[in-house]
Amino acid sequence: MKKFIFLFGILAITSSISAQNVLTENFDNLSWLIPNGWIIHNSSEPLGSSSWGSPNNHFPPYNGGNSSFIAVNHQSTGNIGTISNWLITPTVLLNNGDIISFYTRTDHGIYPDRLELRISTNGDATILPTSSSSSLGDFSTLVLTVNPNLIASEYPTTWTNYSYTISGLSQATNCKVAFRYYVTNAGANAPNSDFIGIDAVTISSSTLSNPNFQPDEVSLYPNPSTDLVTINTDKDIKKIECFDLLGRKTNIPLHQNKTISLSNLKKGHYILKITIDDNAITKSIVKN
Fold first, then answer.
1. Beta carbons of 139 and 178 less than 8 angstroms apart
2. 20 to 30 Å CA-CA from 7: which of 51, 69, 176, 283?
3. What is the number of structural domains in the chain?
Protein backbone atom coordinates (compact mmCIF):
# COMPACT_ATOMS: atom_id res chain seq x y z
CA MET A 1 0.00 0.00 0.00
CA LYS A 2 1.23 3.48 -0.82
CA LYS A 3 1.55 5.51 2.39
CA PHE A 4 2.14 9.20 1.64
CA ILE A 5 -0.66 11.78 1.56
CA PHE A 6 -0.93 14.26 -1.31
CA LEU A 7 -1.53 17.92 -0.78
CA PHE A 8 -0.49 18.81 -8.30
CA GLY A 9 9.10 12.91 -29.58
CA ILE A 10 10.25 15.57 -31.06
CA LEU A 11 8.70 15.95 -34.40
CA ALA A 12 11.47 17.74 -36.23
CA ILE A 13 11.31 20.36 -38.91
CA THR A 14 14.35 21.99 -40.46
CA SER A 15 14.18 25.76 -40.19
CA SER A 16 16.02 28.89 -39.16
CA ILE A 17 14.44 30.17 -35.94
CA SER A 18 14.69 32.36 -32.91
CA ALA A 19 12.33 31.95 -29.99
CA GLN A 20 9.90 34.18 -28.11
CA ASN A 21 7.77 32.68 -25.36
CA VAL A 22 4.02 32.47 -25.98
CA LEU A 23 3.48 30.96 -22.53
CA THR A 24 5.70 30.57 -19.48
CA GLU A 25 4.56 28.88 -16.28
CA ASN A 26 6.87 28.02 -13.38
CA PHE A 27 4.03 27.28 -10.92
CA ASP A 28 5.35 29.70 -8.32
CA ASN A 29 1.79 30.52 -7.21
CA LEU A 30 -0.79 27.83 -7.95
CA SER A 31 -3.66 30.10 -6.90
CA TRP A 32 -3.05 32.10 -10.10
CA LEU A 33 -3.63 29.18 -12.46
CA ILE A 34 -7.43 29.05 -12.67
CA PRO A 35 -7.90 32.87 -12.83
CA ASN A 36 -5.36 32.92 -15.67
CA GLY A 37 -7.21 30.36 -17.78
CA TRP A 38 -5.70 27.05 -16.72
CA ILE A 39 -8.11 24.13 -16.27
CA ILE A 40 -7.79 21.21 -13.83
CA HIS A 41 -10.17 18.35 -14.66
CA ASN A 42 -10.14 14.91 -13.02
CA SER A 43 -11.88 12.19 -15.07
CA SER A 44 -10.49 9.27 -13.06
CA GLU A 45 -12.72 6.28 -12.29
CA PRO A 46 -13.52 5.95 -9.48
CA LEU A 47 -12.90 9.58 -8.60
CA GLY A 48 -10.25 10.01 -5.92
CA SER A 49 -9.69 12.53 -3.16
CA SER A 50 -7.12 14.81 -4.84
CA SER A 51 -6.07 16.37 -8.13
CA TRP A 52 -3.30 18.57 -9.50
CA GLY A 53 -1.98 20.83 -6.76
CA SER A 54 0.81 21.65 -4.34
CA PRO A 55 3.60 19.07 -3.93
CA ASN A 56 4.01 19.93 -0.22
CA ASN A 57 7.83 19.85 -0.42
CA HIS A 58 7.81 16.28 -1.70
CA PHE A 59 11.05 16.95 -3.60
CA PRO A 60 12.77 20.19 -4.72
CA PRO A 61 11.43 22.03 -7.78
CA TYR A 62 13.31 22.28 -11.04
CA ASN A 63 13.57 26.02 -10.43
CA GLY A 64 12.11 28.58 -8.07
CA GLY A 65 11.35 28.39 -4.36
CA ASN A 66 10.14 25.47 -2.28
CA SER A 67 7.10 23.68 -3.74
CA SER A 68 7.12 25.87 -6.86
CA PHE A 69 5.97 23.14 -9.21
CA ILE A 70 2.68 21.35 -9.72
CA ALA A 71 2.11 17.68 -8.90
CA VAL A 72 -0.43 14.87 -8.99
CA ASN A 73 -0.52 11.37 -7.55
CA HIS A 74 -2.26 8.02 -7.06
CA GLN A 75 -5.01 9.59 -4.93
CA SER A 76 -6.55 10.89 -8.18
CA THR A 77 -8.54 7.64 -8.08
CA GLY A 78 -9.74 5.23 -5.39
CA ASN A 79 -7.94 2.18 -4.07
CA ILE A 80 -8.00 0.54 -7.51
CA GLY A 81 -9.03 2.34 -10.68
CA THR A 82 -8.00 4.24 -13.81
CA ILE A 83 -6.41 7.67 -13.46
CA SER A 84 -7.19 10.26 -16.14
CA ASN A 85 -6.36 13.62 -14.58
CA TRP A 86 -6.00 16.67 -16.82
CA LEU A 87 -4.01 19.91 -16.53
CA ILE A 88 -4.90 22.19 -19.46
CA THR A 89 -3.28 25.46 -20.52
CA PRO A 90 -5.09 28.65 -21.46
CA THR A 91 -5.78 29.11 -25.18
CA VAL A 92 -2.55 29.91 -27.06
CA LEU A 93 -1.95 30.87 -30.68
CA LEU A 94 0.34 28.23 -32.21
CA ASN A 95 2.24 28.04 -35.48
CA ASN A 96 4.21 25.25 -37.07
CA GLY A 97 7.69 25.30 -35.55
CA ASP A 98 6.57 26.47 -32.10
CA ILE A 99 8.10 24.40 -29.30
CA ILE A 100 6.33 23.09 -26.20
CA SER A 101 8.84 22.35 -23.43
CA PHE A 102 8.46 21.13 -19.85
CA TYR A 103 10.27 19.30 -17.08
CA THR A 104 8.89 16.32 -15.20
CA ARG A 105 9.96 13.67 -12.71
CA THR A 106 8.59 11.08 -10.29
CA ASP A 107 9.74 10.25 -6.79
CA HIS A 108 10.79 6.66 -6.11
CA GLY A 109 10.52 5.00 -9.52
CA ILE A 110 8.92 1.96 -7.86
CA TYR A 111 5.35 2.35 -9.09
CA PRO A 112 4.89 3.06 -12.82
CA ASP A 113 3.58 6.49 -13.84
CA ARG A 114 2.62 7.89 -17.24
CA LEU A 115 2.11 11.39 -18.64
CA GLU A 116 0.62 12.34 -21.99
CA LEU A 117 0.92 15.63 -23.88
CA ARG A 118 -2.17 16.29 -26.02
CA ILE A 119 -3.37 19.20 -28.16
CA SER A 120 -6.79 20.57 -29.10
CA THR A 121 -6.98 22.89 -32.12
CA ASN A 122 -10.38 24.30 -31.10
CA GLY A 123 -9.12 27.03 -28.77
CA ASP A 124 -11.77 28.51 -26.48
CA ALA A 125 -14.40 26.21 -28.04
CA THR A 126 -12.50 23.10 -26.92
CA ILE A 127 -14.76 20.33 -25.61
CA LEU A 128 -13.32 19.00 -22.36
CA PRO A 129 -13.18 15.29 -21.47
CA THR A 130 -16.29 13.97 -19.71
CA SER A 131 -16.28 12.20 -16.36
CA SER A 132 -15.28 8.96 -18.10
CA SER A 133 -11.61 7.97 -17.76
CA SER A 134 -11.53 7.03 -21.46
CA SER A 135 -12.92 10.37 -22.65
CA LEU A 136 -10.56 12.68 -24.55
CA GLY A 137 -12.91 15.51 -25.52
CA ASP A 138 -11.19 17.49 -28.27
CA PHE A 139 -7.74 16.33 -27.15
CA SER A 140 -7.56 13.41 -29.58
CA THR A 141 -4.11 14.47 -30.84
CA LEU A 142 -1.44 12.72 -28.76
CA VAL A 143 1.99 14.22 -29.45
CA LEU A 144 4.22 12.88 -26.66
CA THR A 145 4.09 10.25 -23.92
CA VAL A 146 6.42 9.86 -20.95
CA ASN A 147 6.70 6.15 -20.11
CA PRO A 148 4.04 4.90 -22.56
CA ASN A 149 4.36 1.26 -21.48
CA LEU A 150 4.06 1.90 -17.72
CA ILE A 151 7.47 0.51 -16.77
CA ALA A 152 8.46 1.45 -13.22
CA SER A 153 12.05 2.40 -13.99
CA GLU A 154 11.26 4.39 -17.15
CA TYR A 155 9.74 7.54 -15.64
CA PRO A 156 12.67 9.81 -14.70
CA THR A 157 13.46 10.26 -10.99
CA THR A 158 15.34 13.52 -11.67
CA TRP A 159 13.97 16.58 -13.46
CA THR A 160 14.08 15.78 -17.17
CA ASN A 161 13.23 18.02 -20.11
CA TYR A 162 10.76 16.95 -22.80
CA SER A 163 9.78 18.99 -25.84
CA TYR A 164 7.58 18.81 -28.90
CA THR A 165 7.75 20.89 -32.08
CA ILE A 166 4.39 21.87 -33.55
CA SER A 167 3.72 20.66 -37.09
CA GLY A 168 0.74 19.91 -39.34
CA LEU A 169 -1.18 23.16 -38.83
CA SER A 170 -2.56 24.79 -41.98
CA GLN A 171 -2.24 28.26 -40.43
CA ALA A 172 -1.81 30.02 -37.09
CA THR A 173 -4.33 28.25 -34.82
CA ASN A 174 -5.80 28.87 -31.37
CA CYS A 175 -5.06 25.74 -29.35
CA LYS A 176 -5.10 24.32 -25.86
CA VAL A 177 -2.33 22.04 -24.61
CA ALA A 178 -3.14 19.31 -22.08
CA PHE A 179 -1.02 17.30 -19.67
CA ARG A 180 -2.89 14.07 -18.92
CA TYR A 181 -1.79 11.94 -15.98
CA TYR A 182 -3.04 8.62 -17.36
CA VAL A 183 -2.41 5.40 -15.43
CA THR A 184 -4.38 2.17 -15.61
CA ASN A 185 -4.57 -0.35 -12.76
CA ALA A 186 -3.81 2.57 -10.46
CA GLY A 187 -4.55 3.65 -6.91
CA ALA A 188 -3.42 3.11 -3.33
CA ASN A 189 -3.89 -0.68 -3.48
CA ALA A 190 -2.88 -1.15 -7.12
CA PRO A 191 0.55 -1.83 -8.68
CA ASN A 192 0.64 1.34 -10.80
CA SER A 193 0.73 5.12 -10.04
CA ASP A 194 2.81 7.07 -7.56
CA PHE A 195 3.57 10.81 -7.75
CA ILE A 196 4.77 13.09 -10.56
CA GLY A 197 5.66 16.76 -10.84
CA ILE A 198 5.72 19.21 -13.75
CA ASP A 199 7.74 22.41 -13.82
CA ALA A 200 9.05 25.11 -16.18
CA VAL A 201 6.40 24.85 -18.91
CA THR A 202 7.14 27.06 -21.90
CA ILE A 203 5.71 27.45 -25.37
CA SER A 204 8.18 29.23 -27.62
CA SER A 205 7.09 30.93 -30.83
CA SER A 206 9.46 30.35 -33.73
CA THR A 207 10.05 33.29 -36.03
CA LEU A 208 12.56 33.78 -38.78
CA SER A 209 15.52 35.69 -37.35
CA ASN A 210 17.67 35.87 -40.47
CA PRO A 211 15.92 35.25 -43.78
CA ASN A 212 19.31 35.12 -45.54
CA PHE A 213 20.38 32.09 -43.52
CA GLN A 214 19.68 28.84 -45.36
CA PRO A 215 19.28 25.58 -43.40
CA ASP A 216 20.79 23.68 -46.36
CA GLU A 217 24.09 25.40 -45.54
CA VAL A 218 24.44 22.83 -42.72
CA SER A 219 24.82 19.08 -43.33
CA LEU A 220 25.90 16.00 -41.36
CA TYR A 221 28.38 13.35 -42.50
CA PRO A 222 28.30 10.41 -42.20
CA ASN A 223 24.64 9.90 -41.44
CA PRO A 224 23.86 7.20 -40.27
CA SER A 225 26.95 6.80 -38.12
CA THR A 226 28.28 4.57 -35.36
CA ASP A 227 30.41 7.29 -33.72
CA LEU A 228 31.95 10.48 -35.13
CA VAL A 229 29.84 12.85 -37.21
CA THR A 230 31.08 16.02 -38.88
CA ILE A 231 28.84 19.09 -39.04
CA ASN A 232 29.59 20.63 -42.41
CA THR A 233 29.20 24.42 -42.28
CA ASP A 234 31.44 27.40 -42.83
CA LYS A 235 29.74 29.25 -39.97
CA ASP A 236 30.58 29.22 -36.26
CA ILE A 237 28.48 26.84 -34.18
CA LYS A 238 27.38 28.37 -30.89
CA LYS A 239 25.64 25.36 -29.35
CA ILE A 240 24.46 21.87 -30.20
CA GLU A 241 21.72 19.87 -28.43
CA CYS A 242 20.61 16.29 -29.00
CA PHE A 243 17.09 14.88 -28.37
CA ASP A 244 15.61 11.44 -28.74
CA LEU A 245 12.19 11.02 -30.35
CA LEU A 246 10.47 11.34 -26.96
CA GLY A 247 12.00 14.78 -26.54
CA ARG A 248 14.55 13.73 -23.91
CA LYS A 249 17.74 15.77 -24.06
CA THR A 250 21.10 14.01 -24.22
CA ASN A 251 24.41 15.81 -23.78
CA ILE A 252 26.96 15.33 -26.55
CA PRO A 253 30.21 17.32 -26.77
CA LEU A 254 31.10 19.51 -29.75
CA HIS A 255 34.78 19.26 -30.66
CA GLN A 256 36.88 22.07 -32.15
CA ASN A 257 36.83 20.53 -35.63
CA LYS A 258 33.00 20.59 -35.67
CA THR A 259 32.64 16.89 -34.97
CA ILE A 260 30.44 15.16 -32.42
CA SER A 261 30.57 11.65 -31.01
CA LEU A 262 27.51 9.38 -30.86
CA SER A 263 29.37 6.66 -28.97
CA ASN A 264 27.36 7.14 -25.76
CA LEU A 265 23.98 6.99 -27.53
CA LYS A 266 21.87 3.89 -28.00
CA LYS A 267 21.05 2.84 -31.54
CA GLY A 268 18.14 4.82 -32.95
CA HIS A 269 16.94 8.11 -34.41
CA TYR A 270 17.81 11.47 -32.83
CA ILE A 271 17.29 15.16 -33.48
CA LEU A 272 20.18 17.62 -33.40
CA LYS A 273 19.37 21.25 -32.65
CA ILE A 274 22.26 23.33 -33.97
CA THR A 275 22.51 27.00 -32.98
CA ILE A 276 24.48 29.30 -35.29
CA ASP A 277 24.54 32.98 -34.29
CA ASP A 278 20.89 33.65 -33.32
CA ASN A 279 19.52 30.97 -35.63
CA ALA A 280 18.71 27.38 -34.78
CA ILE A 281 18.09 24.50 -37.15
CA THR A 282 17.13 20.90 -36.49
CA LYS A 283 18.64 17.92 -38.29
CA SER A 284 17.76 14.26 -37.93
CA ILE A 285 20.53 11.72 -37.39
CA VAL A 286 20.68 7.95 -36.99
CA LYS A 287 23.01 6.05 -34.63
CA ASN A 288 23.81 2.56 -35.97
1. yes
2. 176
3. 2
